[in-house]
Design brief:
Elements (H helix, E strand, L loop, with lengths): L1 H39 L3 H6 L8 H37 L3 H60 L7 H23 L3 H52 L9 H20 L3 H63 L4 H30 L4 H60 L6 H21 L6 H39 L7 H15 L3 H13 L5 H12 L1
Helix pairs in contact: 1-3, 1-4, 3-4, 4-5, 4-6, 5-6, 6-7, 6-8, 7-8, 8-9, 8-10, 9-10, 10-11, 10-12, 11-12, 12-13, 12-14, 12-15, 13-14
Pfam family, one: EzrA
Keywords: Cell cycle, Cell division, Cell membrane, Coiled coil, Membrane, Septation, Transmembrane, Transmembrane helix
Membrane topology: Single-pass membrane protein
Length: 563
């Protein structure tokens, strides 16, 4: 039973598929049939008949026959054969030979597409032929008018055309020959070929007119204007030489000789009617002439600059010389008190050397100006470079001078710090005197002595000649540290001693009640009289803290408020 159901389903599927495939093929057959009929009804015969209005000879007759035969072949043979092919495709589809039917339809569609291409080509050629004939009839009139006007212009301006007149005359003769060829081609029905000749002749006439209008101006430029410009340039050059300008670097004779040769070569190009190349050459010559004038103008401007800048540089050198003398004197003075680093010495030597070089260079510049050895533009470049070097030297001088000042500044700052250290140490002594302590512990006296020794050493080193600032700075740092340590220790000893005394006095109230407190307070008093203030404080504090805890902090607050 399962097999029967499967077979029925398969049969139904095949029937549905066959029905769907036939419908698709029928639809395609209808489309191709419509396309075939549309091609058959094309008015190509009417289009071809347009050519009958032309002279039916030569190329026109050949194309007419070719187009008509091609169209007849399509209508009487190829399209009818398609009917039979379409019938075969339909019959194959009815018999479920779908692949065969599709193959036939593909061939028919390819044939129809080929026909479309051929019909389009025929229509295009017909339009070209008919349009060419119409345009030829209109354009030949305009072309002959242009020829007549061009010929008239030539005859009127032939004298200004110089040697090129014969070339233009030959050109007009060739164009006239082209008109004759055009007439011949037209009479033979070769309208497309005639069109090419006519278009070419019109372009030739246009080119001839443009060249005839350009040649006289080019000849004037090459025969008159440019040679005149070169003469003026040469005269200007000579005048400037007489005025003392050095212009050897320009090489004017060589330049003018080269330009004259190029003018002659450009004239030959004009005589060959190579107008564009000639114009480019003239433009280049004008550019180069302008450049030569720019060089001469630059010499004039450079001369003005040189004589003005000469005074500026002279003043700058004089100012720098004064600065160098001041720096030299200051360096000599500083060297009496300071040991200058070797690098500083080398810097000073280098600055002196640079200044001497600049003086020598300026002397050479002055000699070059007086003896006229170099052009002003070259001297100007030398001066501009020297101005930069002068500015650099001036800046370096300032930096070196500031460094010398800073050396003395270090000495003054050291002396000021030394004065402050002495004041600080004196203040510590006064604090100690005011405290009325019975004596001072040995470690404190050693600290104060160390600070005093450092101060003495700094003072002695400041008297050395030359000064060693680096070493003095090191000793000064030690002195600063020692004085600060002594001042801090002074304050600590005074505070400790006052607190110890205060604690002992406070503890006296417990002597009679506590024998242990009395013993410790006696020990504290002994330590106090032996200048052992810290030990005295510890002994007294332990004694009273044993009977009245926390009292030490209260006493510390009271003592600090009194200090």
């Amino acid at each position: 039973m399962t097999y029967i159901i499967a077979a029925v389903i398969l049969l139904i599927a095949l029937v549905v598929f066959g029905s769907f495939s036939r419908k698709r093929i029928y639809k395609q057959i209808d489309r191709l049939e419509s396309w075939k009929m549309e091609i058959m009804n094309r008015p190509l015969t009417e289009e071809i008949s347009k050519v009958k209005g032309l002279t039916m000879v030569g190329e026109t007759e050949e194309k007419f026959e070719s187009w008509r035969n091609d169209w007849d072949e399509m209508v009487t043979v190829e399209l009818p054969n398609m009917d039979e092919a379409l019938f075969d495709a339909e019959e194959s589809a009815d018999k479920y030979k779908f692949n065969k039917s599709k193959g036939i339809l593909r061939r028919i569609e390819s044939q129809l597409q080929g026909m479309e291409t051929r019909i389009k080509a025929i229509s295009t050629e017909i339009d070209e032929l008919v349009t060419s004939e119409e345009l030829n009839r209109e354009d030949i009139i305009e072309a002959k008018e242009q020829f007549s006007e061009g010929k008239k212009y030539f005859l009127t301006h032939s004298r200004s055309l110089g040697k090129t007149a014969s070339l233009f005359e030959a050109e007009f003769s060739e164009v006239n020959t082209m008109f004759a060829q055009f007439d011949e081609m037209t009479s033979q029905g070769n309208h497309l070929e005639a069109r090419k000749i006519l278009v070419n002749s019109i372009e030739r006439l246009k080119d001839l007119r443009e060249k005839m209008e350009s040649v006289p101006e080019l000849l004037v430029l090459l025969l008159s204007d440019l040679p005149s410009s070169l003469t003026d340039l040469k005269d200007g050059f000579s005048d400037m030489e007489e005025q003392g300008y050095i212009l050897n670097h320009i090489g004017i004779d060589k330049e003018i000789s080269s330009m004259n040769e190029r003018i002659a070569a450009l004239l030959e190009k004009v005589y060959e009617l190579e107008i564009d190349e000639t114009q480019k050459g003239i433009d280049q010559l004008n550019t180069e002439i302008d450049q030569l004038y720019d060089l001469l103008e630059n010499e004039v401007i450079s001369k003005q600059f040189v004589f003005k800048e000469k005074e500026v540089i002279l003043q700058s050198l004089a100012d720098l010389q004064l600065d160098m003398e001041k720096i030299r004197a200051e360096a000599d003075m500083v060297s009496l008190s300071y040991q200058l680093d070797q690098s500083d010495v080398e810097v000073h030597k280098r600055l002196e050397k640079m200044f001497n070089k600049l003086q020598t260079r300026f002397a050479l510049i002055e000699h070059s100006i007086e003896e006229k050895k170099d052009s002003y533009s070259v001297i100007r470049e030398m001066m501009e470079e020297m101005a930069v070097q002068l500015e650099d030297l001036k800046k370096s001088n300032q930096e070196y001078q500031e460094k010398l000042v800073n050396l003395r500044k270090d000495e003054l700052e050291t002396k000021e710090k030394l004065k402050e250290l002495r004041r600080r140490l004196l203040e510590a002594r006064r604090m100690m005197q005011k405290s009325n302590l019975p004596g001072l512990p040995d470690h404190y006296l050693m600290t104060i002595e160390k600070a005093e020794n450092y101060i003495i050493e700094v003072s002695k080193r400041l008297d050395d000649k030359p000064l060693e600032i680096a070493e003095i700075t090191e000793v000064l740092e030690n002195a600063l540290e020692a004085v600060e340590e002594g001042y801090k220790e002074t304050a600590e000893i005074i505070e400790t001693a006052m607190l110890a005394e205060k604690v002992i006095q406070y503890g006296n109230r417990y002597r009679s009640s506590y024998s242990s407190v009395s013993v410790r307070l006696i020990e504290a008093e002994i330590a106090f009289r032996n200048f052992q203030y810290e030990e005295a404080l510890n002994l007294a504090a332990n004694a009273i803290e044993s009977v009245q805890p926390g009292i030490l902090k209260e006493l510390e607050v009271n003592v600090k408020q009194k200090i």
